[in-house]
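Blinded run. Sample ID left blank on purpose so nobody reads anything into the name before looking at the predicted structure. Input follows.
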Amino acid sequence: MSLLGKEIRMKRLIDEYNACIICALDHGMTSPDFLDPLANMRNLVRDAVRGGANVFMLGRNYARICISEFKKDTSLALMLTATSARHPEKNLTCEIGSVEEALRFGADAVVVYVALATGQDKSTIEFTAKVGAECEALGIPFIAEAEYPNIYMPKGEQKKFGADYLLYNARICAELGADIIKTNWPGSQEEFAKIVKAVSPIPVVIAGGHKVSDRELLERMEQGINVGAVGCSVGRNIFLHENPFVITRALSRVIREKWTAKKALEELQEELKNQAERPKRI
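Blinded prediction complete.
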């Protein structure tokens, strides 16, 4: 029965186009500073749903608050971890939920942030393994975030970990029961392809990471899809965007409809131009 439960939920997480477009809105539990757009969570969810996002990463209370904006085929991925972003030892991971709670919420997945090289690798690996085992027993997919040890570290600092770190992290997550692996863009299509191959046949989604230009984001997604990624998990590049709907739609064009990044960017820019030219309501 539990295997059937996983299969049913995975079909909702990864749709008939073999696409998984996740909007990550858990940053109120990870950012050292409050990010203003997160004050309008219902609006963010509504815009991202309209744009084509089919999965939302949320904490328990904002899952309750935002459920009114879900469509019947929208999935909840409940966060089981948060990070102590203001702690002197940056980015220590805190356990905040359980697989059983996610089932009570009607979630289609649980999410664990897996940060290695933080000084707490033993407890992180043990918790990841525990969640993997519980998800297998209870029939709920496990999304593991195999990311850099501090998601807010400057890009230059991330480079010292590099593609080898991400490959190592992703493979550990695969070994411990992850059903979908989210990982950072390592810098090139070739390096990303190595990660996809190393965890095959487990699906991989590309983390949005730092705020980047629309062009860079879409080109990164196109390259990732071309070497086997099934989708994205984007937070800041959606909710910090001037129009969350159009950037989510552009991501959906590239991932679900297989548009080129160039074509999706042209549509996005045209929409932003038209938006700027529309008379403002008084």
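Unblinding after everyone has recorded impressions. The chain has one domain: 2-277.
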